[in-house]
Specification:
By secondary structure, the chain is mostly helical. The protein is about 70% helix and about 0% strand. It comes from Haloarcula hispanica N601.
Length: about 400
Amino acid sequence: MSLYELERDGKAQELIRLLRESDNERVKTRAAELLGNFDDHDDRRDVVNALVDAAQSDSDAITGAAIDSLDELGDDAITQLIGGMAGVDLEDDAADWVKAKAYMQVLDADVPELRMAAANGLGNLDQADAVPKLAERFEDPDPRVRARAARSAGKIGDSRATNPLENVLSDPKAAVRREAADALGNIGNRQALQALLPLYEDDDERVRRIAVGAFGNFGNDRPVDYLIEALSDESAAVRRTAVYSLIELLSNVPTDQSHEIRDTVVEKLSNTDDRSVVVPLVEILEESTQSAQRRNTAWMLGRVTSQEERDRVIESLVDALSDDDQMLRQFAATSLAELGDDDNMVERRLLKIVQDDGVDPNVRGQAIFTLGKVGGERSRKTLDKLIDETEHDVVRKKAFSAISKLGGRG
């Protein structure tokens, strides 16, 4: 039975046995990682005890995995580790500030694994007073400690960490830079976001992805050029993240600026040969639960879709015409009109909606509006007949408006 199967089937004791008895370091490391998923297990006490022992291993990999799993299991597990390794007496019901004070003392311990555990634990306590002490560990000789200290500072989110974290962005270890970038993204103030901009071209793919992912939190168009550059990144994950950030950015900027920024984005996308932007946009439209994101995406798809992706985009936009969000329906309709209909695909799909009496009249009206933009003689005849047959005023009114653009009634 594989380690994954042991974890899936809840075999905590078998994973504990492998963690304690296996001669294979990779097996022990993986067992330690998986035991962090047993928070609600009946053998949780045994799990914590085994991980506390493993955290004192001679192997950096096993120690790191054990400490991270203890972190996943909760503050009481980390507290037990610190108490066992440093002799710090922390009762289960101690106030968070009391625990934080003890953890800050342990940050100065000689054992790097103990400093790692203390840094991890402070991230769960949300005590802003811990940030200056964590910042001292940004220059720790052990990169694992630097990484965990940066991560915890980001979890706490206090702006006092911004300057020290900005310095960590030049750390020689990519793992440390990743945590610092993620932390600055969490803090999210203007200085923090500004510090992340140059990282769109970091040597490490994950650093670039984290930085680009944070660009959507800006409230202005400052990162647009960087995001457009990121759309040509060699990493598909970075390119995909850049698309999501562009849409998030449009959702976050003030309303009076969003239209101008949308035009800027479309202009810059039109000047690039990379068309991989469209698939993530369709996924946002189909899967996102955020109204502003879906509206901006629907608008964007009508302006950046190439012939190669046109069929899928049309299907997605037509489906959006039936959405509960009226503004999204309007954006989808205008984008369908923007795409044009040389092959009559849009017209055929919309006529199915228009001729279906079971479809909501408002949805049919939106489809009729679009037919007025892209339809031909077939649409004109269908709408001419519909005017006399429909019982819905909104459908009739939309049909009159659309047919006037298609040559009038026969």
